[in-house]
Amino acid sequence: MIKKSKKVLRYLLALIITVSILYVLLQHVSIDEIVNVILRIPIRYLILGFLIYTTNIVFRVFRFMVLLDGRLGLVELFQIVNISTLANNIFPLRTGELSYIYLVKKTGNVRLSQTIASLIIARLFDFIAICLIFLFCVLLMRDIPQLFLSVLYIVGLFVFLFLCVLALFFVYKKILIKALWRVIEKAGLSRFKYINLFMSKLEELLHAFSVIKTSKIVLVLFFSIMSFILSCLLGALLLFASGYSFPLLNISLGVIILKLTTILPINGIAGFGSSEGIWTLVFIPMGMDKESAIITGFVIHIVNLVYISILGILAIGRVDLRGG
Questions:
Q1: Residue 3, in any domain of the structure
Q2: 8, 173, 268, 320 - which has most CB atoms within 10 Å?
């Protein structure tokens, strides 16, 4: 009963996020304006965008093939990743991740522990790839207001420090985990349930990471970075095709910040509201007017959802989703 109540509360929270932000954004632009921009995108650019998106998914499939030790084939994993991506973009608060675990486990070729570990590691490398591309964009960013650039430099510094700490944890994981537990116990924090839960999850993550060979780590990182680079190119293509001119580096920064929100459990229903809100908040300080920022946020999101839905629905038609 408690679990059911929590689930209802999560969906209610997602609904509130979606409705609230959409209400604010649609005070400044009309739905007709958004639809008209989408309809004027030339079909050749939509086809090219679909090819870029599909290639993006292929890189993600390659990554899972590495993490699952090749226990599942390219086509089988391609279908699973597309269904999981569709579920994640429809259901709020990242609950769609469960579809990946269910479908991989259902094949009978991969242990449940390895399936869960592969998902955790994939999300970790998503975050690392986002951080690296974010730092690259910030270091090269120039033609934006000085105040916003200063904020990016400060955030970039914290991101760099976080990556350094993360690297230290992976290299000296046993020593640092023991030291962290000692600090927690001396500070009297071990009585708090969430502190213990955090530490147990951290230990699980480090254990899952420790079984991966260095060569696999390089491959997984490469596939993750390529996936996000393609996401940036897709965003730039759709903006150009919609009639909006904006520097590639600025677009890449906006896409990367938006992608960060998609791997955190803060998105609304089908991502609506949260995605457009973040996009608008990022692009206005970079010089885009408010109306254009809102409209392009909707355009990018809706076209991506169409691509996701096409591959996801096709995959559902080819996969037996029943238990057994």
A1: no
A2: 268
Is residue 2 a part of any domain in this protein? no
* Helical H segments across the chain, by residue range: 2-25, 31-39, 43-67, 74-90, 97-107, 112-140, 146-171, 173-186, 193-210, 214-241, 248-262, 274-283, 290-316
Task: Please give the pLDDT value at position 266.
Answer: 59
pLDDT of the residue at 320: 67
Q: Output the pLDDT for position 6.
A: 62
Helix (H) or strand (E) holding 247: none
Rounded CA gap, 205 and 11, in Å?
A: 27
Which of 133, 178, 179, 174 lies closest to 156, judged by CA? 133
pTM for this prediction:
0.86
- Domain-located, residue 231: yes
Q: In which band, very low, low, confident or very high, does the pLDDT at 273 lie, cut at 50, 70 and 90?
A: confident
- Total domains in the chain come to 1
Q: How many CA atoms lie within 13 A of 227 on its CB side?
A: 23
Is position 6 within any domain?
no
Mean pLDDT of the chain: 86
| Domain that residue 195 falls in | 33-316
Residue 281 has which token pair?
């908040």
pLDDT tens-place string over residues 64-120 = 999 998 899 899 999 999 999 998 888 766 667 888 988 998 888 888 878 888 888
Compute, in degrees rounded to 10, the torsion defined by CA atoms 145, 150, 156, 162: -150
What is the distance of C-alpha 42 from the center of its chain?
A: 27
